[in-house]
Specification:
Mean pLDDT: 90
Helix content: 40-55%
Largest sheet: 6 strands, antiparallel, barrel
Structural class: alpha/beta
Number of strands: 11
Order of helices and strands: HHHHHHHHHHHHEEEEEHEHEHEHEHEHE
Radius of gyration: 24 Å
Length: about 425
């Protein structure tokens, strides 16, 4: 039996691949002049590619409703794969429907831009891929240090918008396509919807305003930020938010971070962030009083719990991956919880005071150590009745995938296991 999340993810793929391009295919097929019938398939390939590119741009706006359905990491993977597939179809369109003049020029420019950006993005933007292919991960690490930093990659990635506009112009220049009124209605509607969504997403004031109330180092390379929000924000336990500092150079682009605690009644939000890249390393220099923007929340940890309604919860956290789990434990005190937490060094084990408080509960057990846990240690704590068990994992990608695979083999369905992969 399909789990709810697996069903929704499958449904998202079906809608993306088949449903969204359907109005283009139907209206074009009905109105295309017979003289162009030999090019019909190639034209359809081009229109499907355009619809997928529009969808990829829309996913890039981080719609919250989509995150709550399938999770932003899965949505980004959909974004990446559709973009690559769109380039393949664009190539088939290019060779199957020859053109000339400005029509050819705009099409060629768009295609070349898409290909170049796809190659770049596969190394620097597609974390779902680089985290699985070590040579790409090593190349990304080396080149990102001095040249292609995150902020640079974000701006380069925005050239996809230029390429999409070129495709729009390319279509508008074709007179026999413009003559198909139903098709043009769908074409304008899709394009306008995505344009409006994008413009809303890049508003300078998008998100909730906040002031940095406190900024302290709680462990080597880990800063705890306390933010005072100007108004409530919709977050759940285990969520992450996008944080930016609009008035600080090189910190204006939003970056995702998990919350230590969701906003309380005083609208205070706490984040714990490890300094890995330029943005996160610069956080140590940001003084209290700095203005920030917070956009969120995103995430499916608490949604997974709400769907399963477990009586027992196993949490496995490695390093900074413990952060989203802290609010999960606080928000679900009635669930029997077994918590495994490891780090590279003793002083990297965060928030000992929280664990000391939770250990006072009759239904909470934790294991903390330096170095990874072996499989047997964790599997020996699994209850006999798996139907009401949920497993939540946070940490590096290889670790997360390992435990997801192991518990799947044990018999848990995909709706009972959740790992939120921070790989963008």
């Amino acid at each position: 039996m399909l789990t709810r999340r697996k069903y929704l993810l499958g449904l998202a793929w079906v809608v993306a691949i088949f449903v969204i391009p359907l109005p283009f295919i139907q209206t074009l097929s009905a109105g295309l002049p017979a003289i162009y019938s030999s090019e019909k398939m190639a034209i359809i390939f081009g229109l499907i590619a355009y619809s997928w590119m529009l969808l990829a741009i829309y996913i890039g706006t981080k719609p919250k409703w989509l995150d709550r359905l399938i999770g932003l990491p899965s949505a980004y993977m959909l974004h990446g794969i559709l973009s690559i597939a769109a380039i393949v179809l664009a190539y088939l369109h290019k060779i199957g429907s020859p053109s000339g003049g400005l029509i050819k020029l705009t099409g060629d420019w768009a295609f070349d831009l898409f290909v170049g950006l796809a190659i770049y993005s596969l190394v620097f933007m597609a974390g779902w891929l680089t985290s699985r292919v070590k040579p790409l991960a090593m190349l990304k690490k080396q080149l990102s240090k001095k040249i292609f930093k995150h902020e640079v990659s974000v701006w380069i990635h925005k050239l996809n918008l230029v390429a999409t506009v070129l495709v729009f112009i390319h279509v508008m220049l074709i007179s026999y396509i413009r003559a198909i009124a139903p098709f043009m209605f769908a074409f304008y509607l899709y394009s306008a919807f995505v344009l409006i969504a994008y413009l809303i997403s890049v508003r300078p004031d998008r998100g909730v305003g906040a002031v940095l109330a406190n900024n302290v180092e709680i462990s080597p390379r880990v800063q705890e930020l306390s933010l005072q929000l100007t108004k409530p924000i919709d977050t759940k336990a285990g969520d992450f938010v996008f944080l930016s500092f609009p008035k600080i150079a090189k910190m204006k682009e939003p970056h995702p971070f998990s919350v230590v605690s969701a906003p309380n009644q005083n609208r205070e939000m706490v984040l714990a962030i490890r300094g890995d890249g330029d943005f996160t390393k610069n956080l140590a220099t940001v003084e209290p009083g700095a203005e920030a923007l917070v956009n969120g929340g995103y995430g499916l940890y608490q949604t997974t719990i709400d769907n399963v309604k477990p009586t027992h919860m196993i949490i496995i956290a490695g390093g900074i991956g413990v952060v989203p789990m802290l609010s999960i434990v606080d928000a679900n005190p009635d669930i029997d919880t077994t918590f495994f937490y490891n780090a590279h060094a003793q002083n990297n084990l965060l928030y000992p005071e929280k664990f000391a408080r939770w250990e006072q509960r009759d239904n909470f057990t934790d294991y903390q150590q330096v170095g990874r846990f072996d499989d047997e240690t964790i599997l020996n704590t699994v209850p006999r009745d798996l139907s009401k068990l949920v497993v939540l994992v946070g940490g590096p990608a290889p670790m997360g995938r390992h435990w997801v695979k192991l518990f799947s083999q044990l018999g848990l369905n995909s709706g009972q296991i959740y790992y939120e992969e921070f790989s963008w």
